Amino acid sequence: MVKVVGMEKGYKILGNYIRLVDERNKNLAVTKLLGVSISKKFIPSIANIVGTDLSNYKIVRTGQFAYGPVTSRNGEKISIAYLDEEDCIISSSYTVFEVENKEELDPEYLMLWFSRPEFDRYARYKSHGSVREIFDWNELCMVELPVPDIEKQRKIVKAYKTITDRIDLKQKINDNLVA
Predict the structure, then answer these.
(1) Alpha carbon distance 11, 114 (integer Å)
(2) Which domain of life is it from (predicted)?
(3) Pairing with 93, which of 10, 121, 139, 173 sits 20 to 30 Å away (CA)?
(4) How big is the CA angle at 99 (ends 153 and 103), to the nearest 5 degrees?
(5) Confidence at residue 18, expressed as pLDDT on a 0 to 100 scale
């Protein structure tokens, strides 16, 4: 386990909980092509793939993450998302990873952490390069975050989902009233 001097009490190093995944679409079994947006969601790709060999594209399985390490021209945000739908393929320029032990770190809790503006600021600060700034895998692994017990993580995720579901419902009610 990696320890960092000066780390906040109760914070852990993310690299102790995640691992790289590099599964290629060699047999072309996955056809759903997506990208990752700065709004931290998987989105339909706008790439022209006519004549493109999709066998080198990376497969993202349900429950895995993908991020674009290039942070330049992203509006101060890092493109990172958690796949909670059917498997897809993405460009090989993305990095795919997963939580190793979901009984220690809940992937949805981790995605909430990635969604914070503080994470984007940290990622931009830790990016390096000149024309193309990169927030590489090693930097991602050094991210410090609080990792409470798994039940507390799940309660946080549940509370967040309850709030966002209520917001969505109220927006639909408002939309109906306007119509």
Answers:
(1) 15
(2) Bacteria
(3) 121
(4) 45
(5) 98
Instruction: Give dist(CA 76, CA 131) in Å, integer.
Output: 15
Q: Smallest Cα–Cα separation from 79: which of 133, 49, 115, 48?
A: 115
- Cα–Cα nearest to 65, from 109, 118, 126: 109
Question: Given CA atoms 165, 169, 174, 176 in this order, what sign does their dihedral have?
Answer: positive
pLDDT value for 138:
95
Sign of CA dihedral 45, 61, 156, 170: positive
Amino acid occupying residue 71: T
Cα angle 123-127-131, degrees, rounded to a multiple of 5: 135
Q: Which pLDDT belongs to residue 7? A: 56
Average pLDDT, the chain: 90
Q: How many CB atoms lie within 10 A of CB 51?
A: 5
The 8-class DSSP code of residue 24 comes to B
In this prediction, residue 71 has a pLDDT band, given cuts at 50, 70 and 90, of confident
d(CA 156, CA 105): 12
